[in-house]
Amino acid sequence: LPVYVVMGFDSLHGYTQFPPPPYFGATIGRYANRIGGAKFTLDGKTYTLDKNDGANSLHGGFHGFDKVMWKAKPAVATGLQNIEFSYLSKDGEEGYPGNLTVMVSYTLTNDNDLRIHYSAIADQDTVINLTNHSYFNLSGHDAGEILDHVLTINADRFTPVDGGLIPTGELRKVEGTPFDFRQPHSVGERIGAKDEQLTLASGYDHNWILNRKGTGLEFAARVSDPKSGRVIECLTTEPAIQFYTGNFLDGSFKGKDGKPYVHRGALTLETQHYPDSPNHPDFPTTTLKAGQQFDSTTVFRFSTQQ
Ligand code: GLA
Q: What's the gap in Å between 205 CA and the centre of ligand 1?
């Protein structure tokens, strides 16, 4: 029998049901993670977004890229398993400016790399932040908590948040905190520590600033599962990663084979620009200028260890 290492549903209905499930396997856009106050100003104009997360906008709004129908086509020319999705997000959709044409391709290589490539172009200046919201449990999608998974994140700093999970603007060193994953630690080792940031997010749900040498594909994170020996390495061209421990899962969503998806039953590795960047001019910019090509790649490299 196959072992599913990501959460998901057996059919489209699972993804379109109400209340909407929390982004299982989804492409997130136009803006991954939160925009504080659900508004931002660009070229002197203020844009208002959906408040779908308290006072803030999360993952593109009520009807983000996870809720729309994409065109799909196999791109077999490379000889590899490959599928390409495209979508036209119209000017004003979910409050964002500009017609944005976006493409996401998934390629499974012969080295067990799942390569996700994003590209986009807009006819007006806009903001963009794309990610993939897969929930991984390397023991299996229904195997229970991921607290024993061992994690490394290649980051010296993270962005602390306020009560609405919006970055305060501080770039904080991970050193001496439960956020230090520069050496491997189990997810659960410090998740219950007395720490203001862990309390605010009911666990890990933060943006780590990746240590980078340049702009290419670089090592971001590694997760291994001592039970199964399965390993994922994550590489990306993005400057940051949201590591989230499924704190909002509560068993109410039944996924593949009707299995309930329990609290902390999976983790996500959402490569991204920092949350709320449009309201933080000192963060790496998420502005996409009219006619400029957006390009981003993330690889999930699967392997096994003894
Ligand atoms: C991201 C966010 C979390 C949560 C999940 C989906 O990881 O940072 O706060 O919204 O998506 O539930």
A: 7
How many A from CA of 105 to the centre of ligand 1?
23
Known catalytic residue at 270: yes
pLDDT in tens, 233-284: 999 999 999 999 999 999 999 999 999 999 999 999 999 999 999 999 999 9
Question: Residue 111, Cβ neighbours under 10 Å: how many?
Answer: 9
Does residue 268 have its Cβ closer than 6 Å to ligand 1? yes
Which atom of ligand 1 has the smallest separation from the CA of 205? 8
175 is catalytic: no
Give how far the C-alpha of residue 59 lies from the chain's centroid of Cα atoms, to the nearest Å. Answer: 9
What pLDDT band is residue 77 in, cutting at 50, 70 and 90? low
Alpha carbons 136 and 269: distance in angstroms, whole number: 8
Nearest CA to ligand 1 atom 12: 22
Task: Please write the tens of the pLDDT for every residue from 114-158.
Answer: 999 999 999 999 999 999 999 999 999 999 999 999 999 999 999
Q: Cis ω on the peptide bond leading into residue 222 (within 30° of 0)?
A: no
Ligand 1, atom nearest to 268 Cα = 7
The response to whether residue 272 sits with its C-beta less than 6 Å from ligand 1 reads no
